[in-house]
């Protein structure tokens, strides 16, 4: 049936997000918080995350354009960003953040710049996937 | 999730917010009022949802300053605070300190950073827990335990002190006559006492859940003790003889021995005399704050905190009981080996103060000399300030056993300030004489204090009192303390001195251990027992103390403390000053604020030069440094200088008062040398460095 198929698709997509390491258990925590009183809680949180993180990313980019690089400040920004990522369970993004911070500690400017590109990449990828997932989930609900 | 149920039922803890006098509401912890602070709104949203799922009452806040305002405006509006460590507008630890000092709520820190040193920092700053982000709901489910634990400790102290006092007083009263003429034979007394104690115990058992009798070292009792020791001569004051002289039914030799031990500790050389009866101001809140400071400074484990909590005493104004508890707790603390006995003495003093305040003794120990050196500077700040100081000092005095009649509000104020001044209070006792005159001045302030409190300046006013403590006569001090106590956490009763005393004691204790400089200025020898607010006075005190040896030796507990002047003390000062500065900035009407800070800052300055980062505290520190601290003899001067300077900073108008105040000191204080030194300082004080400029010192600017 259409509905079942849709649900299967949703479940399958969800599973792959976890299997591929895009999401971790924290995302499950968010899902657990979702209930009838807050049926779109997870999506709302993710939306909020992306709104906030956009600013953080801009800050980091600006900081990376400085010469010389202020590693403390960069580490600071990334600490915040990482905390935010971890709160929604964005696993891959978080890992890239960790890597970035290591480069900051080592005061490796190039490493920071390179890693940051990866951070942004993972960040954008996850966003796309989650958008798709949420849409699918809504359809699944709607049809259900 | 089932949060209520068993947890609630197993606790018999009263909670003012839960409107249950004898136990926790069945629904507990449902409705626990949580304040969440985090600059990351994603995290905030998640936490809020999680806490709501736990059936808690959640308020979220993304700025620390706003959180503080919320807490201050509604002192009794929250049960627990959860705060992120990493925030742009204010460091989470600073917020933690503020909350601990002002509201004494349990605070949970959280951070994505799980490195050991950060977690340790949380512990030392007094966080009751530390959560690693991302936070899971399971971790939040049990946060209610921190609220319960805290209240339980306070309640327990309250109960114990309350029941003890009654029990003890009863036999005392009835048998006083009998004993007064009876032969002073230890054995006979002991047996009689034992019997009384048994009666007391029974009585207590009937009325409370207390199991073991504790001696409440009320102000009167302490005075008797002091008189006995004086009479015997410190060298010959053995517990047995003291006991006989005191002739107090129900008192055991062991009680006296412990008390003596507390007082003795910190007395490098036998004092020439013991200060005349000290009235301990009720500084329950002060003790509490003190405790927090100690905890923070020395990374005291929960155990210590727990101990300190016991000093806090009940929410109700049970001054007397507090005193008793404190005394006992002091011993217990000492026993733990964590706190130097000295600090215990302080606590005791505070406890004594408590009882005193209860009795509403208005004029405190004039005899208390010592610390006034600190006091003078404070008073100089001006009438307004003084009052506030007085209030604060009252608190401090409480510690010393200066009984003060403190109005609830004043106590509340004191409480708050006491916290910061923890150390200061202790000192007050020493300068009994001096304080009395000062107190007179302070008497007025009470109304001001109230005003201050209302304006929210309680913090500021608090500060001064702590400073003033030594000077403040018991009457004032108690009043001040009373106010502070009241304000604090809106817990009905003013813990006053007791709490504060305990807090103070804590400070002192910590100082010996790790806290340098913090609130334990008292450590000084001359009997500056009071723990000057945050160790600011420590340096000063010590030096002062030296000059004034002869101060109540018993209150010399902090002599050693001040030696520590280290940075830890700064932290505390920082917190205090921070508040003070904030208040100063915020409240134009606050007379005290800056001065108060100054006091604190002084000690800190002296010791912790490095306090630059703490906004106000730093200022003070630097001030201290500048004045050329370091010398014992100069300490007093420095204090004055600092105080004056600070006061100058704070408000120009304050200064005039300061000078007036200073004059008071010389007359009153037995320690002419100190006082005059202090006074001189004040007069000669010129504009202080910018560091001390409290005026309009925005929090953000505070270098951290």
Automatic annotation (TrEMBL), chain A:
It comes from the Eukaryota. One of its GO terms (molecular function) is histidine phosphotransfer kinase activity. The keyword Amino-acid biosynthesis does not apply. It holds the Pfam family Hpt. Keywords: Cytokinin signaling pathway, Phosphoprotein, Two-component regulatory system. InterPro entries: AHP1-5/YPD1, HPT_dom_sf, Sig_transdc_His_kin_Hpt_dom. One of its GO terms (cellular component) is cytosol. Its main location: cytoplasm. Gene3D superfamilies: HPT domain (1.20.120.160). The modification Phosphohistidine is found at residue 79. GO terms for biological process: cytokinin-activated signaling pathway; phosphorelay signal transduction system. Residues 38-133 form the HPt domain. It is found in: Cytoplasm, Cytosol; Nucleus. Histidine-containing phosphotransfer domain (HPt) contains an active histidine that mediates the phosphotransfer. Functions as a two-component phosphorelay mediators between cytokinin sensor histidine kinases and response regulators (B-type ARRs). Plays an important role in propagating cytokinin signal transduction. This is Histidine-containing phosphotransfer protein. It comes from Nyssa sinensis.
TrEMBL record, chain B:
One of its GO terms (cellular component) is nucleus. Its main location: nucleus. Gene3D superfamilies: 3.40.50.2300, Homeodomain-like (1.10.10.60). The modification 4-aspartylphosphate is found at residue 84. Residues 179-189, 630-639 have a biased composition (Polar residues). Residues 1-21, 158-207, 620-639 are annotated as: Disordered. Keywords: Activator, Cytokinin signaling pathway, DNA-binding, Nucleus, Phosphoprotein, Transcription, Transcription regulation, Two-component regulatory system. InterPro entries: ARR-like, CheY-like_superfamily, Homeodomain-like_sf, Myb_dom_plants, Response_reg_B-typ_pln, SANT/Myb, Sig_transdc_resp-reg_receiver. The keyword Cytoplasm does not apply. GO terms for molecular function: DNA binding; DNA-binding transcription factor activity. Residues 33-148 form the Response regulatory domain. It is found in: Nucleus. GO terms for biological process: cytokinin-activated signaling pathway; phosphorelay signal transduction system. SUPFAM superfamilies: CheY-like, Homeodomain-like. Transmembrane segments: none annotated. Belongs to the ARR family. Type-B subfamily. This is Response regulatory domain-containing protein. It comes from Nyssa sinensis.
């Amino acid at each position: 049936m259409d509905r079942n198929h849709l649900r299967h698709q949703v479940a399958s997509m969800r599973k792959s997000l976890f299997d591929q390491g895009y999401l971790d258990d924290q995302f499950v925590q968010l899902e657990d918080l979702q209930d009838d009183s807050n049926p779109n809680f997870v999506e709302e949180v993710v939306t909020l995350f992306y709104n906030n993180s956009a600013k953080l990313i801009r800050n980091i980019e600006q900081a990376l354009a400085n010469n010389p690089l202020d590693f403390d400040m960069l580490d600071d920004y990334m600490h915040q960003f990482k905390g935010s990522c971890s709160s929604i369970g964005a696993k891959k993004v978080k890992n890239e953040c960790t890597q970035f911070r290591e480069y900051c500690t080592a005061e490796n400017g190039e490493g920071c710049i390179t890693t940051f590109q990866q951070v942004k990449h993972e960040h954008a990828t996850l966003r796309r996937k989650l958008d798709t997932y949420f849409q699918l989930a809504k359809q699944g609900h709607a049809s259900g | 999730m089932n949060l209520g149920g068993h947890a609630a039922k197993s606790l018999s803890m009263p909670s003012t917010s839960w409107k249950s006098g004898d136990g926790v509401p069945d629904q507990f912890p449902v409705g626990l009022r949580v304040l969440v602070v985090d600059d990351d709104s994603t995290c905030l949203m998640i936490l809020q949802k999680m806490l709501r799922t736990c059936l808690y009452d959640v308020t979220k806040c993304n700025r620390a300053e706003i959180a503080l305002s919320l807490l201050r405006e509604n002192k009794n509006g929250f049960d627990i605070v959860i705060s992120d460590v990493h925030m742009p507008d204010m460091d989470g630890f600073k917020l933690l300190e503020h909350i601990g000092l002002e509201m004494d709520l349990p605070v949970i820190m959280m951070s994505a950073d799980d490195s050991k040193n950060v977690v340790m920092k949380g512990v030392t700053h007094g966080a009751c827990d530390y959560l690693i982000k991302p936070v899971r709901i399971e971790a939040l489910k049990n946060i209610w335990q921190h609220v319960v634990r805290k209240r339980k400790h306070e309640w327990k102290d309250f109960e114990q002190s309350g029941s003890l006092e009654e029990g003890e007083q009863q036999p005392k009263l009835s048998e006083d006559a009998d004993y007064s003429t009876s032969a002073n034979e230890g054995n006979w007394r002991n047996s009689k006492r034992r019997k009384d104690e048994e009666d007391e115990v029974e009585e207590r058992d009937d009325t409370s859940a207390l199991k073991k009798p504790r001696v409440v070292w009320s102000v009167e009792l302490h005075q008797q003790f002091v008189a006995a020791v004086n009479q015997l001569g410190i060298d010959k004051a053995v517990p047995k003889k003291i006991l006989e002289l005191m002739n107090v039914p129900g008192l055991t030799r062991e009680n006296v021995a412990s008390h003596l031990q507390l007082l003795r500790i910190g007395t490098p050389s036998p004092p020439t005399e013991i200060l005349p009866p000290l009235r301990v101001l009720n500084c329950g809140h002060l003790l509490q704050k003190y405790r927090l400071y100690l905890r923070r400074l020395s990374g005291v484990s929960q155990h210590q905190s727990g101990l300190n909590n016991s000093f806090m005493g009940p929410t109700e104004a049970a001054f007397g009981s507090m005193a008793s508890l404190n005394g006992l707790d002091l011993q217990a603390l000492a026993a733990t080996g964590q706190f130097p006995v000295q600090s215990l003495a302080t606590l005791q003093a505070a406890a004594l103060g408590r009882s005193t305040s209860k009795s509403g003794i208005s004029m405190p120990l004039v005899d208390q000399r010592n610390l006034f050196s600190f006091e003078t500077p404070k008073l100089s700040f001006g009438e307004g300030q003084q009052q506030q100081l007085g209030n604060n000092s009252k608190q401090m005095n409480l510690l010393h056993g200066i009984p003060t009649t403190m109005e609830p509000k004043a106590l509340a104020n004191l409480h708050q300030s006491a916290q910061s001044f923890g150390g200061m209070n202790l000192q007050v006792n020493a300068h009994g004489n001096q304080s009395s005159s000062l107190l007179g001045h302070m008497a007025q302030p009470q109304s001001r204090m109230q005003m201050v409190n209302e304006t929210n300046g309680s913090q500021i006013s608090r500060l001064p009192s702590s400073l003033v403590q030594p000077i403040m006569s018991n009457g004032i001090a108690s009043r001040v303390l009373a106010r502070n106590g009241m304000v604090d956490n809106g817990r009905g009763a003013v813990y006053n001195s007791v709490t504060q005393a305990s807090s103070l004691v804590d400070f002192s204790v910590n100082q010996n251990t790790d806290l340098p400089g913090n609130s334990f200025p008292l450590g000084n020898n001359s009997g500056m027992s009071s723990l000057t607010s945050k160790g600011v006075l420590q340096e000063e005190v010590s030096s002062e103390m030296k000059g004034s040896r002869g101060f109540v030796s018993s209150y010399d507990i902090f002599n050693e403390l001040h030696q520590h002047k280290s940075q830890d003390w700064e932290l505390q000062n920082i917190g205090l000053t921070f508040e003070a500065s904030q208040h100063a900035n915020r409240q134009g009407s606050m007379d005290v604020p800056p001065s108060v800070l100054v006091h604190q800052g002084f000690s800190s300055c002296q010791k912790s030069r490095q306090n630059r980062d703490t906004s106000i505290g730093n200022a003070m520190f630097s001030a201290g440094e500048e004045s050329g601290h370091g010398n014992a003899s100069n300490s007093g001067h420095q204090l004055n200088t600092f105080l004056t300077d600070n006061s100058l900073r704070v408000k120009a108008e304050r200064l005039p008062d300061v000078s007036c105040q200073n004059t008071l000191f010389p007359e009153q204080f037995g320690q002419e040398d100190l006082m005059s030194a202090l006074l001189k300082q004040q007069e000669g004080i010129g504009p202080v460095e910018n560091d001390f400029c409290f005026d309009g010192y925005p929090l953000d600017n505070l270098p951290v």
